[in-house]
Design brief:
The protein is α+β, with helices and mostly antiparallel strands. 60% of the residues lie in helices and 11% in strands. It contains 9 helices and 6 strands; from the N terminus they run H-E-H-H-E-E-H-H-E-H-H-E-E-H-H.
Length: 481
């Protein structure tokens, strides 16, 4: 048994030396991240807070900046219960397993085999004998990674796993962003309902005045004025009822986003809109590290680059080593003795001589896929800059529009009050009141819509800045060569 251990030990040391000598041989190009044009500053940055990469906000629970209790309650549930996120998590776990599968190919396969038999046969002088025999062997086989094909495969699978991890982060951020946007839309629906209820009350008051003046015989009030005021009230009441449809749909969407059935969640009416946060914006180059979709595209490039190496390695021969050591004895008694030691070592080599261009074509396929991933990466970066610029310009322009609408709403409210007072005094007809009320409602709804757009643009800006995520969070380290 000691002799077998010695022989197998020699084989292992020989394999280790061979592997060490050839470990530096890796087929294909080493990965280098392609350069992409990065602007020195954002075009829309004036007027915005500039932050250094280390201080760029928000980070972590970015939704808390909106000071909405519903967001604070529901956003953490997205990462755990959202089905889109769970699907991407499963893909990431599969990619991690593929890394382990590829890494295992760098090491020998070791096995053991035992056999025993008992047979009855003819012996001397016509007698019969029962003969027992047995064998106990250890086997080892190894295909050394002479040209780095396996190491490139590990590199490819590792980069793919990192891309899947970044994709998971991007899916989580996207679903959290969608949830925040939907909550804002729900809050707007509630605010619109509140506004419509106040409008109904105002129209009721206008109808009361019209009816009272009609009974009093005031000449400025005709029977048609009463009918017109009643129609306006009834229309406002119908519109108020219709607003419930959109609110219900937003509530159902929120339930699904956090992984619940719509009937499981009851969201009470809210009377306060989320707070518009101030979002510090870092320098443009930070996007390359803060956006998970950019990180996923960059890791995909690395995976495609490694795939070129895997394809190139197919040009070289494969060498396999094998060893068997153990004991064999018939009869079985005394199996584990030095005299019964058996061993063998062997090596095989294979090389494709003619494949009519198949390997060359596979290398071309891998190179083309890499070039495509480079274009996709650069396109993702450009889109990221476009997204941020759109968010910044939208917030800047909407802020100016909100100021103008605030003035318009204040004047419209004042105009309605004056028109209603004059109508009550009998100096103007109801048409003046109706026009003033219609203008006031339109301006108030526009102001709410702009407030919603500003909040959604703020959510979008946080998302487009990466939501506090960083590429340094990628957990799967690229194995050294």
């Amino acid at each position: 048994m000691n002799h077998a251990h010695i022989e197998l030990g020699r084989i292992g040391r020989l394999a280790g030396v061979l592997g060490a000598l050839l470990s530096g041989c890796v087929a294909g190009p080493d990965y280098k991240r392609p350069d992409v044009p990065v602007p020195a500053r954002y075009k829309e940055l004036p007027g915005w807070i500039s932050a250094t990469p280390a201080d760029a906000a928000p980070k972590g629970d970015w939704w808390t900046a909106f000071h909405d209790p519903l967001l604070d309650q529901l956003e953490p549930m997205v990462a755990m219960s959202n089905q889109t996120v769970r699907q991407d998590y499963a893909n990431y776990q599969q990619a991690l397993a593929e890394v382990r599968v590829a890494s295992a190919q760098l090491f020998p396969t070791i096995g053991a085999e035992a056999s025993a038999s008992r047979a009855k046969g003819a012996g001397a002088a016509g007698t019969h004998a029962v003969i027992s025999s047995g064998a106990l062997e250890a086997t080892a086989s190894w295909t050394p990674d002479l040209w780095g094909a396996v190491r490139r495969l590990v590199e490819q699978n590792t980069a793919t796993a990192q891309a899947d991890e970044a994709t998971l982060a991007n899916a989580t951020l996207s679903e959290q962003t969608l949830l925040a946007t939907t909550v804002i839309e729900l809050r707007l629906a509630d605010a619109d309902i509140d506004l419509q209820e106040k409008t109904v009350d105002a129209f009721k008051e206008a109808l009361r005045i019209a009816e009272a003046q009609g009974k009093a015989g005031i000449s400025a009030t005709s029977p048609s004025a009463v009918i017109t005021a009643r129609v306006a009230l009834e229309t406002a009441q119908a519109n108020l009822i219709g607003l419930g449809v959109a609110r219900a749909q937003y509530a159902h969407a929120i339930a699904v986003l956090v992984g619940k059935n719509p009937e499981e969640m009851d969201i009470p009416h809210g009377s306060v809109m989320p707070t518009l946060p101030t979002v510090p914006v870092g320098i443009p180059s930070t996007l390359l590290q803060r956006r998970p979709d950019i990180a996923a595209a960059e890791r995909t490039m690395a995976a495609q680059n490694a795939a070129v190496g895997v394809a190139v390695a197919a040009y070289y021969p494969d060498i396999s080593l094998s060893a068997v050591g153990g004991f064999s004895q018939s009869p079985l008694n005394g199996l584990l003795r030095a005299a019964n030691l058996v061993w063998s070592v062997g090596a095989t080599g294979t090389e494709t001589l003619f494949d009519f261009g198949e390997r060359t074509a596979k290398v071309d396929v891998a190179k083309a896929a890499y070039e495509g991933s480079v274009a996709a990466y650069r396109g993702t970066v450009l889109t990221a800059f476009q997204d941020v610029e759109n968010d910044l310009s939208g917030l800047r322009i909407l802020a100016d529009q909100a100021q103008a609408l605030d003035l318009a709403v204040n004047d419209a409210v004042r105009a309605t009050q004056i028109a209603l007072a004059e109508f009550q005094a009998g100096t103007v007809d109801y048409t003046t009141v109706a026009q003033a009320q219609e203008t006031q409602l339109s301006n108030q709804q526009s102001a709410l819509s702009v407030q919603q757009s500003r909040l959604i643009d703020a959510v979008s800006l946080i998302s487009d800045l990466g939501g506090g995520w960083s590429a340094s969070r990628l957990q799967v380290a690229t194995p050294s060569r």
